[in-house]
Amino acid sequence: xxxxxxVFLKAGVLDVQGKAVENALHGLGWTGVSDVRVGKxxxxxxxxVDAGAAEAEVxxxxxxxxxxxxxxxxxxxxx
Amino acid sequence: xxxxVVVFPGSNCDRDCKVAVERxxxxxxxxxWHAETALPAGLDLIVLPGGFSYxxxxxxxxxxxxxxxxxxxxxxxxxxxxxxxxxxxxxxxxESGLLxxxxxxxxxxxxxxxxxxxxxxxxxxxxxxxxxxxxxxxxTVGNGEGAFFADAETLARVEGEGQVVFRxxxxxxxxxxxIAGLINAGxxxxxxxxxxxxxxxxxxxxxxxxxxxxxxxxxx
Lengths: 79, 220
What we know:
A: Mth169, Chain: A, 2 helices, 3 strands, about 35% helix, B: alpha/beta, two-stranded antiparallel sheet, 11 strands
């Protein structure tokens, strides 16, 4: 089983990287682009974790290390 | 006074902190590797130094906050031992939950390295009492992710409980409410982005950082 965790700054937390990318896209002519957010994706094999428990286990990893929930939200995909 | 400086892989101000504390206070300062599971006995002060612990991977201070030694730092903080986190050390304190909030990338996306003027909001803490009647201090900042952030509710609490110790006179990085340094509710854990360890003698441009360390002598 493989987990994919997407981590993004929460709405309301200024994403200065996103702003810089947005400005660059505007400069290249994609002037309609808005609300760019830059996040990160963390992928890993889960080893022997039970399929039913996988999501809860990854959620614990997010809360403990992978995301700082003061500023970040996360989304988990298990495949 | 007895002090310890924690050394994480990627710390780069650890020796500066040792020299700054020694020369400012005459304290004996031990260096403690992050993998240690015990701190030296009888500490009055623990310093978490600046740098790029764990290469700033994942988030600044995130992995350092989970280092074995941090469990001991937390216990010491709970006992009332003074803990100062400087720059990356401040990030570690926030990541570990010993201080509220988080440090975000600077608003202008640039690494900022310069002396800054600070307003001393709380001259009555155990970290600031040696400043006496002074309400301004100059210390050097050097950070890329130094913009303090907390949600509105947390920010209101921090302000309401008088936990803001230092504010920037001219905000260099987009910190909310110009916050440069804050203290925990117990008054024994201080985090700040400016470097007292780079500002502790006149040859460095400012000796004000020495006053921060000397403040601790009165309780040591």
